[in-house]
Amino acid sequence: MTTSSSAPAEALHIVCPHCDAVNRVPAARLREEPVCGKCQKPLFTGQPVDLSSARFLKHIERSDLPVLVDFWAPWCGPCRQMAPFYAQAAQRLEPAFRVVKVNTEEAQDLAARYAIRSIPTLALFKGGREVARQPGAMDVNNILAWVQQHAR
């Protein structure tokens, strides 16, 4: 069996967490620590990416990876309690997922656009569309289980 024109379809668009450039990365090379073609920094850091309103849409609309979002605020106790678990989840979910955080105090437009009524709230986006949402703090195992349940 030969592969000809199907090979490019296996390349994924990955938005750089540093400079927001859109990179094409062969799916088979995701675990090889790819770097951005523009800024030469790692495309995966093992940490949640803090996104402002200006950067958010590019990351959810231009990435071929599912994007897990933590809508949070610095004054929120449960948000601060969940933060280390969310960071642990990021280490385990990358590179199959982009894991990001949105501070709803700084990005009030996004909180309104996505009708975030309680924080923390996790939302999973695929192809620019929200496919699942879960309010409330979770530990790392519950985050991972929830993501796997809704990633299909």
In short:
By secondary structure, the chain is an alpha/beta fold. The chain has four helices and seven strands.
How is this structure best described in words?
- Keywords: Disulfide bond, Electron transport, Metal-binding, Oxidoreductase, Redox-active center, Transport.
- The protein has 152 residues and is of the alpha/beta class.
- The chain has a domain at 45-150: Glutaredoxin (3-Layer(aba) Sandwich).
- 29% of the residues lie in helices and 24% in strands.
- The protein has 4 helices and 7 strands.
- The strands form 2 sheets. It has a 5-stranded mixed β-sheet with strand order 3-5-4-6-7, with helices on both faces. It has a two-stranded antiparallel sheet with strand order 1-2.
- Helix 2 (77-93) packs across helix 4.
- It starts with 10 loop residues before the first strand and ends with a helix.
Secondary-structure map:
Blueprint (H helix, E strand, L loop, with lengths): L10 E5 L6 E5 L22 E2 L2 H10 L4 E6 L4 H17 L4 E6 L4 H6 L7 E6 L2 E7 L4 H11 L2
Parallel strand pairs: 3-5, 4-5
Antiparallel strand pairs: 1-2, 4-6, 6-7
Helix pairs in contact: 2-4
Q: CATH superfamily membership of the domain at 45-150, which one? A: Glutaredoxin
* Rg over CA atoms: 16 Å
| Average pLDDT score | 93
One letter per element, helices H and strands E, the order comes to EEEHEHEHEEH
Terminal residue distance: 28 Å
CATH architecture assignment name of the domain at 45-150: 3-Layer(aba) Sandwich
Structural class: alpha/beta
How many helical stretches?
4
**Gross morphology:** globular
